[in-house]
Design a protein that fits this description.
Low-confidence stretches of chain B: 1-5
Number of domains of chain B: 2
Radius of gyration of chain A: 21 Å
CATH architecture of the largest domain in chain B: Orthogonal Bundle
CATH topology of the largest domain in chain B: Fumarate Reductase Iron-sulfur Protein, Chain B, domain 2
CATH architecture of chain A: Up-down Bundle
CATH class of the largest domain in chain B: Mainly Alpha
Helix content of chain B: 25-40%
Strand order of the largest sheet of chain B: 2-1-5-3-4
Number of helices of chain B: 8
Distance between the termini of chain B: 64 Å
Number of strands of chain B: 7
Oligomer: heterodimer
CATH superfamily of chain A: Fumarate reductase/succinate dehydrogenase, transmembrane subunit
Helix content of chain A: over 70%
CATH superfamily of the largest domain in chain B: Alpha-helical ferredoxin
Number of strands of chain A: 0
Shape of chain A: globular
CATH topology of chain A: 3 helical TM bundles of succinate and fumarate reductases
Chain lengths: 224, 258
């Protein structure tokens, strides 16, 4: 390829596949994986109302039409792609947070570790809650699982990792898709990501607490 | 003010400097320690120059002057980027009094070492060419004056033109390493500059095609170290996000709307 100025337009076509997969990776963390996480927390938050309501919502989700297709295309494949390509990206970077301990550099490193922790947790969570129960997870099985201290601790770690990963991922996504382009917009995006991470963490802790200790603060909604 | 002969300082204060030496790249690097006479407002270049004037290590062994690059001595040429106490920065603007001793001086790690502190940064120029960071002007006849640029636009983009290709932004970037061909923040910022230039914008599509290719803008992982370390305070993270937006727009709508 010549690099003479006048031949600029006549250059070869660059391989843009990495660009495509990188941006898809960034997007897939928000839609559908992040959206699923929000739905998952939302559905599970019905435990705050009552065990019966919780089981009814679970039943509702289990009887969705086209459920296998929705699960495969909307959850399994995106999570596996997001995780797999994420590990590939991790392998191409070299974290230097100790040498340059600025906040976003720490976030860069934590994003990778939280992704790994969340991925391990999700694998274990699917195994125990989905396969060990034969797909019939309900309040009783969840309550039993969370009565185990180690299980409950791992749930909290998983909630924290997933919430942080999503919150920081939102900030990353907004920067990497050029939606938050100015320094001011990127700061606002960081606050948005932090708000998401904190709210998801608090909601997750509340749900775990509720299922473990039979704590149903919104039970009175039913009597109305 | 700094004409006192090395070794003849009157304050008695010493500056201990450890330099990672590699006079011959076929050999492994080694450390040499020097004790220099302290002087007010001493910077790292003065340390290296003092060593050159009297190349004797702290324990009295004769050695050779340290090879390093420096030119302007006022942070506008970019030549003297090196690791000082583990941090990538310009030696000319790094004051000894602001550092913990012994001061460790090493060459940048993301570029091939030529000798001692001298590194080969020509990859940056190659990447500027690869990402088409120029405005084609040369031809067989006079093309006439280009479009005028309003003062507002000039003011917005002038900071990008201050880039001195020092390489600090690449040195601190976790995405720039031997596993990746990421071009780094400085080059992406030039893509933005030339896309914003009214004549340069005529070749925006070719530039975006390059920047969406291997080592391009998608390899940025948003650690944002570049903007922290840039000696010219260039808004590098804004540049990367802007180039991201242009590339995304091209990727999403380019095939659809032309």
């Amino acid at each position: 390829m010549s690099t003479h100025p006048l031949t600029m337009s006549a250059s070869k076509t660059d391989d843009q596949s990495a660009f495509f997969w990188r941006k898809l990776h960034s997007l897939s963390g928000i839609v559908p994986v992040g959206v699923f996480l929000a739905e998952h927390f939302w559905s599970n938050s019905y435990v705050l109302v009552s065990p019966e309501k919780y089981d009814a919502v679970g039943q509702e989700l289990q009887t969705l039409p086209f459920r296998p297709i929705i699960e495969a295309a909307g959850i399994w494949l995106p999570i596996l792609f997001h995780a797999g390509y994420g590990f590939y990206i991790w392998g191409k970077g070299k974290s230097n947070a100790f040498a340059y301990p600025w906040m976003h550099n720490w976030m860069y490193t934590l994003q990778r570790w939280s992704g790994l922790i969340a991925f391990l947790f999700i694998g274990w969570h699917v195994y125990t809650a989905r396969f060990l129960t034969g797909g019939r997870s309900n309040f009783v099985t969840v309550h039993d699982d969370l009565s185990n201290n180690l299980y409950a601790a791992f749930y909290l770690v998983g909630v924290l990792a997933a919430s942080f990963h999503l919150g920081n991922g939102i900030w990353n996504f907004l920067c990497k898709w050029g939606l938050a382009a100015t320094t001011r917009a990127q700061r606002a995006a960081a606050y948005l990501g932090a708000a998401v991470a904190v709210s998801f963490t608090l909601a997750g802790i509340l749900i775990v607490y509720s299922a473990r200790y039979n704590f149903h603060p919104f039970a009175r909604y039913i009597q109305q | 003010m700094d004409t006192a002969a090395p070794g003849g300082g009157n304050s008695g204060r010493k500056v201990v400097v450890r330099v990672k030496r590699r006079p011959d790249t076929r050999e492994e690097p080694r450390w040499e320690e020097f004790a220099l006479d302290w002087r007010p407002h001493m910077n790292i270049i003065i340390c290296l120059r003092d060593i050159a004037e009297r190349p004797v290590t702290r324990d009295g062994h004769a050695t050779t002057p340290v090879s390093y690059e420096a030119s302007c001595l006022e942070e506008v040429c970019g030549a003297c980027a090196m690791l000082i106490n583990g941090v990538s920065r310009q030696a000319c603007s790094t004051l000894v009094d602001s550092l913990e001793q012994p001061i460790r001086i090493e060459p940048l790690t993301k570029f091939p070492v030529v000798r001692d502190l001298v590194v080969d940064r020509s990859i940056m120029f190659e990447n500027l060419k690869r990402m088409k960071c120029w405005v084609p002007l040369d031809g067989t006849y006079d093309l006439g004056p280009g479009p005028r640029i309003s003062p507002e636009v000039q003011e917005k983009y002038y900071p990008l033109a201050r880039c001195i290709t020092c390489g600090n932004c690449l040195e601190v970037c976790p995405q720039v390493n031997e596993n990746s061909d990421f071009v780094g923040a400085a080059i992406l910022s030039q893509v933005r500059l030339f896309n914003a230039h009214p004549t340069g914008a005529m070749h925006m599509k070719e530039r975006l095609a390059a920047v969406m290719g291997p080592g391009g803008v998608a390899d940025c992982a948003n650690a944002q170290n570049c903007v922290e370390v840039c000696p010219k305070q260039i808004p590098l993270t804004e540049s990367i996000a802007e180039v991201n937006r242009q590339a995304i727009r091209e990727a999403v709508f380019g095939w659809l709307l032309g």
